[in-house]
Predict the structure.
Amino acid sequence: MKAIVKTKKGPGIEVQDVEIPAIGDNDFLVKVGASSICGTDYHLFAWEENKEGPNWWDQTLKLPVILGHEFSGQVVEVGKNVTSVVQGDRIIASPLMPCGKCATCRAGKSEFCLEAIVGLNVDGAMAEYLRLFSSATIYKLPDHVGYKAAALIEPLCVALHGVEASGIKPGDTAAVFGPGPIGLLTMLLLKAAGASTVFITGTEADKNRLELAEKIGADYAVNVEKENFLNKVKEVTKGEGLDFVFEATGAPSVLSDTFLATKAFGTIVFLGMYAGSARMDINQLVIGNKHMVGSMGYTGTTWKRALALVASGVVKPELIIGKTFPIADGAAAFESLARKEVAKAMLVP
Ligand SMILES: [Zn+2]
Ligand SMILES: [Zn+2]
């Protein structure tokens, strides 16, 4: 089968012909319906070294590995000890497959176990077939939920976890920094949660993504190279500032603006992994009694609610899909993201 493989430490990926994974008694085999390229996959493709120290993936990535942790598919073969699925089930699954033995698992936080992560330290879904372990947390798809929308439930969970952590209420105002997939999904969720006004920001390079954001629900899509974002917030909120800011760029340079845009007692949620350390004036936090919240990953209940939002049609993650590529054109898919042509690139076998 064709698969997109990260083979070495350094830029690039390879499309290879590899064996269909053989399954043991405790595994099951999924015929991949769709997988999508995440910011994480893109970082592994681009391989920008962190000059200040180790990269965040240094401890988890095991090479060579088939990439892809945002996926959906159909179960085609089931090991004899596996009881969670039967042949024919259409499923999605958390890429974190708990080991049951590590300190995190023993502390009852198995959904955050990092021992077996699909597409990082066990083979992932950018291939025709994917082997999962019996420990995988799976969610069965209703028939009417398509594979592409379903593959986006994992990143939707990342965004939903952040929105939940914020405590936003209907009628509140918010801004999302960064119109990448997580930023756009966060914007869709904020609108679904009843936010009265949602800004999204980006640069000239994000032009296409900002246009998309406006088309699918953002109230104000601000190109910060053409318009002064803080002035725009002041104007729209009549000088008050925003209740919530969601930071999804990972760019240290925007940190100061996230605080300046937030009103007193407001909250800034950090969803992006930072490319390096950032500087800010802590007085901006102290004087305004503002809150900073970090958000990564998700819990089982996040998955259930994300699936319910998609199945009911309340949130349509497929709106952010720009282009779908066959696995064989994997390199072209990653390059289109490098040019920021699309927000989300999908892969189909
Ligand atoms: Zn991801
Ligand atoms: Zn564990």
